[in-house]
Write a structure and sequence with these properties.
single chain, alpha+beta, six-stranded antiparallel beta sheet, 6 strands, about 25% strand, globular, FRMsr_CS, GAF, GAF domain-containing protein, Phosphatase_reg/MetRdx
Amino acid sequence: MKHAFYDSLCRQAEALLAGEDDLVAAMANFSALLNQNLEDLNWVGFYVRRGDVLVLGPFQGKVACTRIPWGKGVCGTAAATDTTQRVMDVHQFDGHIACDAASNSEIVVPVRRDGEVVAVLDIDSPSFNRFDEEDQTGLEALVRCFEKALFAQ
């Protein structure tokens, strides 16, 4: 069931991003698309790589941490290891950076250009165990749609 939902979101993202070459504009609309269609979230957005730091990019939600060191917290770990981080309880994640005390679970998916991590998509939920394997697979596919739309010129 979730597979069809994420496929539909991917098609919506492709249409939304068609012809867009500005990364900030694309990230802003992509964040809004996810925020409008995914339930039980309190933050969704991007952190963009700037050397050895992730800098806050377009997002939907409360005020957020502006800079995250490479390899630190859930976002920095996803970026440094180039792997999705799906955390059922952020309070149990060693080194978690609490930007919003209301967040209890999180998923972070690396965004790549030419095989290099250039950003991460970060999604937080006030619920514990919000993201399952189907969400991870679907969100990874959505990020691939985003990459294809923006970077496959």
